[in-house]
Specification:
Blueprint (H helix, E strand, L loop, with lengths): L4 E7 L6 H17 L8 E6 L6 H11 L3 E6 L5 H12 L5 E4 L10 H10 L4 E6 L7 H16 L8 E8 H7 L9 H8 L3 E6 L13 H15 L2 H30 L6 H34 L6 E5 L1 H15 L1
Parallel strand pairs: 1-2, 1-4, 2-3, 5-7
Antiparallel strand pairs: 3-8, 4-6, 5-6
Helix pairs in contact: 5-8, 9-10
The chain binds uridine-5'-diphosphate and magnesium ion.
Length: 330
């Protein structure tokens, strides 16, 4: 029997984009069902990440008109990674495989066929990888290159130029459920799940409408999550740096005592200030990096829910909701 595929599409304040990209998603679903590549029960699952515009109303409308569309709504905005997680775990109840992608049409829908062909051949995870970054501006191109280089150097496994356009089988997803971390960086977590995987290359397009939710500041926060979530090497670098600075300090003491006994006591103000500034800087940097990790441990220790669904749209999901509501009433 053909596998049930769920497209998982996170949306945050995307009222301008949804009507533009919907025909592309729906058309692909129809094509795949008609070609008998996927099962008739396959769905497009929109995840509204607590939007404040008409996004949820649009999803509800899609779902009311078409049984192949479903939606879940997060109780508030929690970020794309958490929205994706909510969608993946919801889909796991029904699907044999999932494909996550942006709602803005940037991830080329045509690459789905190649992803499914790779799945047919046995791949449990298929990473969508950008062929180039021609459409990015120079700062974004440079920072992303720096990020992937840094990730590699720090020893965290990451797929170069892969975002969150990804096929994951239910089997890989069930294994992924045991990754309980709160600081999510999905593109770094899936390589750790293992199983047979491969890459499919695609041309990333420009946004259908609206603006990116990832300005440099948010991008940097995500990159920091990626680095600190997957590598403890920065902590080791601090230890190494501390050792080096201590050696240097020890040499400076020997030098200071020697010059003192040799009678060349200079006023030493400049060198003193340099040392204090240097040490102060290193110490602050070290404290900052330590703080990053402690902050992460703090968040993990709380074990707060990573997503909360407040509403459902679509036939299957509504039924599920009714069952749960009845259970709580009993
Ligand atoms: N997104 C989300 N929650 C957020 C921010 C973004 O669900 O808090 C969704 C957004 O609607 C889009 C995807 O995540 O479908 C990627 O965001 P965006 O296109 O703004 O990022 P970019 O492609 O520019 O990196
Ligand atoms: Mg986008």
């Amino acid at each position: 029997m053909e596998p049930i595929l769920y497209f998982i599409i996170p949306c945050y304040n995307e009222e301008a984009v949804l009507p533009l990209t919907f025909p592309g998603f729906r058309g692909k679903l129809t094509e795949l069902i008609q070609k008998k590549i996927i099962h008739e029960n396959s769905r497009i699952l929109y995840v509204d990440d607590g939007s404040s515009d008409q996004t949820w109303e649009i999803i509800q409308k899609f779902a009311a008109q078409d049984e192949h569309i479903a939606g879940i709504r997060q109780s508030r905005n929690r970020g794309q990674q958490n929205a994706l997680l909510a969608g993946l775990l919801e889909a796991l109840k029904y699907a044999d495989l999932t494909i996550t992608m942006d709602c803005d049409g940037q991830d080329d829908i045509q690459a789905v066929n190649e992803m499914l062909a790779a799945y047919e051949k046995g791949a449990e995870i298929v990473y969508g990888v950008r062929r180039n970054r021609k459409r990015d501006n120079l700062p974004k191109r440079l920072t992303s290159r720096l990020f992937y280089r840094l990730m590699n150097w720090l020893g965290a496994e990451s797929i170069y130029d892969h975002g969150d356009y990804r096929l994951v089988s239910a089997r890989a997803l069930r294994a992924f459920v045991d990754f309980k971390e709160v600081n999510l960086f999905l593109r770094g977590m899936f390589p750790l799940v293992g199983f047979q995987s491969t890459c499919v290359y695609y041309e990333r397009k420009t946004r259908a409408a609206g603006r990116t939710h990832y300005p440099i500041k948010k991008m940097a926060a995500l990159a920091l999550d990626g680095i600190t979530g997957f590598s403890v090497r920065p902590l080791r670098i601090i230890t190494g740096l501390g050792l080096l600075v201590s050696l240097f300090g020890f040499g400076a003491i020997v030098w200071a005592v020697a010059t003192h006994f040799l009678g060349y006591t200079v006023d030493g103000w400049t060198s003193m200030i340099c040392m204090v500034a240097f040490l102060g800087g290193i110490q602050l940097l070290a404290l900052g990096i330590l703080g990053e990790y402690i902050g992460k441990i703090y968040m993990e220790a709380k074990g707060r829910p990573r997503y909360i669904i407040s509403e459902y749209a679509g036939k299957d999901h509504l039924q599920e909701k009714e069952m749960n509501d009845n259970k709580t009433l009993c």
